[in-house]
Each structure stands twice: as C-alpha cells, then as structure tokens.
Write a structure and sequence with these properties.
Helix content: 25-40%
CATH topology: Rossmann fold
Number of strands: 8
Strand order of the largest sheet: 1-2-4-3-5-6-7-8
CATH superfamily: Alpha/Beta hydrolase fold, catalytic domain
Shape: globular
Length: 313
C-alpha cells in the first residue's frame, strides 16, 4: 500500500526554515502552535445538540470537562456515556483542539461525551495526566445522570497520547474496583513508551512524529517509568478482564506496530477486539478534516463502533 497522494504531497513540502523546533519552544509556545496547526487543517465544525463547560474536583485541583450531548435528553436511564482523552504528545492538545473530533464521535456514537482537559507535561509528570483522566471517568460514572447520560453504560476513548491514557484508565478501573467500563476506543494509541519495532524504525522521521522521543522524555519522571504498565500498557503482565476495544492504526505511523500488538494482547486476554488499519494514512490523520475525507469517515466509524457496543443493552 502506498501513502495517500495528498499526504505524500504534504510530506514532500519544504519545511518552514524559520520554524522553531518544538524541542526549543517553551510549553506555552508549543501549545499555541499546536492549536494553530489543528485549526488550520480542521474542517467546518459539525453541529451538535449542545455543549457545556464544567469543572470537577481533580487530584491536582479543578479539572475542566467539555460535555457534548448529541440530542435532546430522553426519558429512562439516559444515553450511554463516553469519556474522551485528547492527543497532543503529552505536552500539548486540549478540549479545544479536539472539539471537532468529539462532536463527530458524540454524534455518531449517540454517547454523551466528556472531553478531559488533563494536566500536561513537562509541568505535570507521569502519572498526573492519567490520574486526571481516571478521576474524570470515575466522576462521570457517578454524575452522568445530571448530564442526560447513564453512568452504568460507560466507554473511554482517546487518540495518540490520549489513547495511552484511555488504555491506562481501563487498567486502573479494573484494579481499583471501578468504575465499570464497557468499551474502549483507541485511536493510534501510544501503548509502549520504550518501543523498538519495525514501524518505529521506518516512520520515526519524516511522518510528522519526529519529536516523539522529546514528548516521552518530557512526560516521564525517569526512564524507569517506561516499564510502568500505566505508562506502557502493552508491557502490562495481565491484560485480562478489560473492556472490548476498537483499535485504529495507520500504515505509515511509527505507533502502528505497538497499536496492533496491543489489540492482539487484548484479544489474547479474552477481550473482544476490532482492529482497523488505515493502511495509506499517517499518525494524526483524523485531524486533517479540511484535507482528507477519510478523516471524518474514520471518526464516524469510531463513533459507530462505540454505538454498536451498546446496541445490545
């Protein structure tokens, strides 16, 4: 499979000679650049019934959530719920950068979706962000009814670094006796922070994820953290008792092999897993909504997978 023609064209474009590498930027500069870059490739924001900004108690102080309701509130127990963790290499990203993605997934899944504005590195090191995402998941399970959702029908999801956190949250929920999570949506997740595999060797340079080593160093307190199962879920000794999963990978992504390996380990642990590889895509392709029709198609497919998981309830 060849790289998508539009992506081939984008990757072949000469780099801006005046651009400052993220490794040399302040955290504030890096985050502002990320927001600008995401806005530049985003398409028109999908309509959604309603959004709401709230703050909840978090382990490091108030924690911001953006809640998306895909339709008018219904009678009975409410809609299924989804807690979403945004990507951004652990140092960047926000509920704003992933607003369009969450709207699409909420509409397609039928879930009331809570997007978590977790703490970022390097100011906050591992496991602060994961503890934020777990706290948000636990809170939403307990308070979903106030937002038109059913906390007993709960999924978690995320992309890239956020996929790492969603996977870690399922481990925490299993080992901390709750909340009960029914499904996990992992979009090109980072599951092994010490990965050394074929896709990492092939695509670590020139495919928009050149700074991955810097992101990981910024996030971890020490190299020893790479082996911690909450930092590297693929390295967990036991992946049994975890929720069914929908795992998305991209063919030209350095994280491809660890995403596929995680899907295989989940299946070996007894979970129901659907693994989908967009063979001609790169890491982060779902953000390129103004450029690739496949971005929206993939996000809608993600939402459909979550919807199907609750269809038999």
């Amino acid at each position: 499979m060849e790289l998508h023609p539009k992506l081939k064209e984008l990757l072949a474009a000469p780099a801006d000679p005046n651009a400052t590498p993220v490794e040399q930027q302040s955290p504030e500069e890096a985050r502002a650049e990320f927001e600008r870059d995401f806005a530049a490739v985003d398409g028109e924001k999908p309509d959604i019934h309603s959004t709401e900004e709230i703050q909840i108690p978090g382990p490091g102080g108030p924690l911001r959530l953006r809640i998306y309701e895909p339709g008018p509130r219904e009678g009975g127990s409410g809609r299924p719920a989804l807690v979403y963790c945004h990507g951004g290499g652990y140092i960047r990203g926000s509920v704003e950068s992933h607003d369009s993605a969450c709207r699409l997934i909420a509409n397609s899944s039928g879930c009331v979706t809570a997007s978590v504005d977790y703490r970022l590195s390097p100011e906050s090191k591992f496991p602060d962000a994961i503890e934020d995402c777990y706290a948000a998941t636990k809170w939403f399970a307990e308070n979903a009814a106030a937002h038109g959702a059913d906390g007993s029908r709960l999924a978690v999801g995320g992309d890239s670094a956020g996929g790492n956190m969603a996977a870690a949250v399922t481990l925490m929920a299993r080992d901390r006796s709750g909340p009960k999570i029914a499904f996990q949506l992992l979009i090109y997740p980072n599951t092994d922070l010490a990965a050394d595999n074929e896709s990492m060797r092939l695509f670590s340079k020139g495919y928009w994820l050149d700074s991955m080593p810097f992101y990981i160093r910024s996030y971890l307190g020490s190299d020893a953290d790479r082996a911690n199962e909450l930092a590297s879920p693929l390295r967990a000794s036991d992946l049994s008792g975890l929720p069914p999963a929908y795992v998305v990978t991209a063919g030209f992504d350095p994280l491809r092999d660890e995403g596929k390996a995680y899907a295989e380990r989940l299946a070996q642990g007894g979970g129901a897993v659907e693994s989908v590889c967009y063979a001609n895509m790169i890491h982060g392709f779902t953000a390129l909504r103004a450029i690739l029709p496949e971005a929206d198609e993939a996000l809608k497919a993600c939402g459909d997978a979550v919807r199907r998981s609750f269809a038999g309830d």
